[in-house]
Amino acid sequence: MKSTRITILLILMTMLFSSCGQVQIKAPDTQLTEKPNIENKDHGQNDNDINDEARVAINALKDKDMEEISELVHPKKGVRFSPYGYVDVENDLVFTASDVKGLFSDSTIYVWGSYDGIGNPIELTFEDYYKKFIYDVDFANAEQIGYNEILGRGNTLENSAEVYTDSIVVEYHFSGFEPQYEGMDWRSLRIVFEKDKGTWYIVGIIHDQWTI
What we know:
Elements: H1 2-20, H2 30-33, H3 47-62, H4 66-72, E1 79-82, E2 93-95, H5 97-101, E3 110-114, E4 121-124, H6 126-133, E5 144-147, H7 160-163, E6 167-174, E7 187-196, E8 199-209
Helix pairs in contact: 3-4
């Protein structure tokens, strides 16, 4: 009987020392630590809220109908064009609704930002910018459409939710085109809408792709 008690005691002591050696890891409080991102936005604002406006906008971009786009541009904020997923509020160009109407006939060479990887300035007319950084693929027939959901992910910081805090972001996405690139040739176009006096307007057009 005595030997049995000693055996039980040894087992209990072993278990006690074993548990003391374990490190208990507590997951951080995500409400306090995570940065705002587009997935954390109110999904009550969904495709039903913005579907019609988004359809008109993407078809107008496909048709190069800047008259139509100008009517959708925010009357106070205008529209900001971002060539990559990171919205640079200091350097990305912003145009008013009246400016947008004549962009295709505007021969001005603007600086739209810097090319990924090489850092050279993106010096293009709007028409050339459109071909490379707006409608470089047929986004009106995109493989996927996301509402306040990031579909294309690369190395560039995606900060649209931080810049456009009260918005719905509609993303038109292709996961890739050539099998040998294994998805690294994906493309996305995000159209950002904000509401003013009950009407949804475009405040941002963001092109995104794989970056170095």
